[in-house]
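S1.2 Input.
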Amino acid sequence: MTDIEPVSPGEILLKEFLEPMHISPKQFAKNIQLSESEVDMILNGTRDISTDIANRLSAFFGTTSVFWMNLQGIYNSEKLRV
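S1.3 Output.
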């Protein structure tokens, strides 16, 4: 059986939110008041979604912070199993 790499919250953010909305990472960083490098790290899966960032994402997209924190928790759990 082949293990499938877990999908990071950043990849979900990019593919399911930013790209369909035609928002560049640079513009997104400005909109949620994070540095471009912080957003790049999230999108690349090298930075976790913190509570603060989850709150910013939920305010911007009209989701809940729990949604983003759950994505992060699931990703962290899956990384341990791979």
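S1.4 Remarks. The chain has one domain: 9-81.
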